[in-house]
Amino acid sequence: MRDRIEVAKLDGSQRRVLFDDDLVNPRAIITDSANGHLYWTDWNREAPKIETSYMDGTNRRILVKDDLGLPNGLTYDSHSSQLCWADAGMLVQPWWRGGA
């Protein structure tokens, strides 16, 4: 089975795939529903990354790809507009989203 990110209603209806390409081992996934953003980590040992898109799957882009080990936890602080992640073997890292 391919790794993928899907969405659905809470009752399981209207299920659909948002992403099923360029994913190796997606780990953490969070939403910033106030701004309509989705964030996730890809625990790819060859090319780890943190990505984002709109919650409908459009505007997919890589946010962080340098200086990552195995990013496996995410949280978003709406008060400071910071995306923070846990990286296996490293400290929690903040990333300033600013006007993104």
Give a description of the structure.
By secondary structure, the chain is mainly β. The chain has a domain at 26-93. It has no helices and nine strands. It has strands at residues 5-7, 16-19, 26-32, 37-42, 49-54, 61-64, 71-77, 82-87, 93-96. The termini are far apart.
Largest sheet: 4 strands, antiparallel
Tell me the total number of β-strands: 9
Provide the helix percentage: under 10%
Spatial order of the strands forming the largest sheet: 3-4-5-6
What is the percentage of strand-forming residues?
A: over 45%
Organism: Acipenser ruthenus
Protein name: Nidogen-1
GO cellular component, one term: plasma membrane
InterPro entries: 6-blade_b-propeller_TolB-like, Cueball_EGF_LRP_Nidogen, LDLR_classB_rpt
Keywords:
single chain; 100 residues; mainly beta; globular
SSE layout:
Layout: E1 5-7, E2 16-19, E3 26-32, E4 37-42, E5 49-54, E6 61-64, E7 71-77, E8 82-87, E9 93-96
Antiparallel strand pairs: 1-2, 3-4, 4-5, 5-6, 7-8, 8-9
In short:
The protein has 100 residues and is mainly beta. The chain is 0% helix and 47% strand.
